[in-house]
Amino acid sequence: MLNGVNGTMSKTRLHNGDVRVRKPWGQYTDIYRSPTVVFKRIDINPGEEISYQYHDCRDEHWYISSGLGRFKLNDEVLVACAGDTFHIKRGVSHQISNTGNLMLTIFEMQCGDCREDDIVRLSDKYERPDEH
Got the DSSP string for 59-121? Predict the structure, then answer.
């Protein structure tokens, strides 16, 4: 995508679901990515979970599309099911686990400085290091 002002290439990309990243808990698919906004689909396999983590540079908004899970926000634990939404501000610890028998699907929008290396892991059952 060219910037009309000086003809330079921008870093905004519409992916149309063709950029999939495999993770030990399932996968995520980039739909749209720019330096300040990311929209992705997250699929968590039954019995799996993302790390308990926070982000220094971005906020996240989650929409649970399908499945059943346990959502931890700081010390509060909530049931997460289809139709639920969660707003996660930067610096707030969070985790979601798939407690159902089917795929847990989340649509996530990130706002701020959207880098995949902005993950501070507090605990991780897969023993991965922080992304910093």
Answer: EEEEEEEESEEEEEETTEEEEEETT-EEEE-TT--EEEEE-SSS-EEEEEEEEES--TT--EE
